[in-house]
Design a protein that fits this description.
Layout: H1 8-23, H2 28-35, H3 39-49, E1 53-56, E2 61-64, H4 69-74, E3 77-78, E4 88-89, H5 112-120, E5 129-132, E6 145-148, H6 150-159, E7 164-165, E8 168-169, H7 186-197, H8 202-209, H9 213-220
Antiparallel strand pairs: 1-2, 3-4, 5-6, 7-8
Helix pairs in contact: 1-3, 2-3, 8-9
The chain binds zinc ion.
Zinc ion binds near residues 136 and 141.
């Protein structure tokens, strides 16, 4: 197979014809055969012409072009709930809080709901948060989002009776032994309750179990470890 590498205007003209032929349904393979070119070379011509690939002059090879962030964003949004429903982020979620993860710029870890707000509503003032009216962290429907301070956000959550700690909603908080601060096991908590209930001095129990007096008191009054019978 002979290869004819064209340059300049001649190459541009031929490449335009190739792209046009592909748009009309011809395969790269059949065009390559007709022109005496490598099928891979014809594919590269089409990929560059349609913006899928770019030529990396530094490395001397072709690479996948960075896709437009807006197109990447919409590709991950499920709007099937309609205009008023929650638009759910179908991509990765943050571990803390379950917000959509979206990097508008490669390497900058961003949040999908913040990108949605800036794209569809307007800029987010410095230092302010984008909060959810709907309490649904992966939602990116701009009509469910509002700008607030950290204080507003907490007030909103308290009003809705959903206090979040460490970015995790109360009903999804690791409790008891699984909590990273836990010093006691469930068995010890039961033991403590039984012993204090039987009249042992709380301060002495606190020393024995290596916890603060208030910890024992909180356990006894079920302000903590309430889920342990
Ligand atoms: Zn929503």
């Amino acid at each position: 197979m002979t290869r004819r590498r064209l340059t300049g205007a001649a190459a541009d003209e031929r490449n335009a014809l190739i792209v046009e032929a592909v748009r009309r349904g011809r395969t790269c393979r059949s065009i390559a055969a007709e022109l005496g070119l490598d099928a891979a070379h014809v594919q590269r011509i089409v990929r560059v012409a349609t913006g899928v690939s770019v030529y990396d002059w530094r490395r001397g090879n072709y690479k996948r072009a960075a896709r437009d962030p807006v197109a990447r964003f919409w590709a991950k949004v499920d709007t099937s709930a309609g205009m008023d429903g929650c638009w759910l982020w179908t991509g990765a979620l943050t571990e803390a809080g379950g917000y959509g993860r979206f990097d508008a710029v490669k390497g900058q870890s961003g949040r999908a709901h913040r990108f949605a707000y800036e794209l569809l509503v307007g800029p987010i003032p410095d230092g302010l948060l984008v909060c959810h009216h709907c309490d649904n962290p992966p939602c990116v429907n701009p009509s469910h989002l509002f700008i607030g301070t950290a204080k507003d956000n907490v007030a909103d959550m308290v009003r809705k009776d959903r206090v979040w700690r460490g970015g995790v909603p109360a009903d999804r908080q690791p409790r008891g032994e699984r909590h990273y601060m836990a010093r006691l096991t469930e068995a010890q908590v039961r033991e403590l309750r039984a012993r204090a209930g039987a009249g042992e001095v709380q301060a002495a129990l606190a020393r024995e179990y290596g916890v603060a007096d208030e910890t024992v008191s909180a356990i006894m009054h079920r302000r903590t470890w309430a889920h342990v019978a």
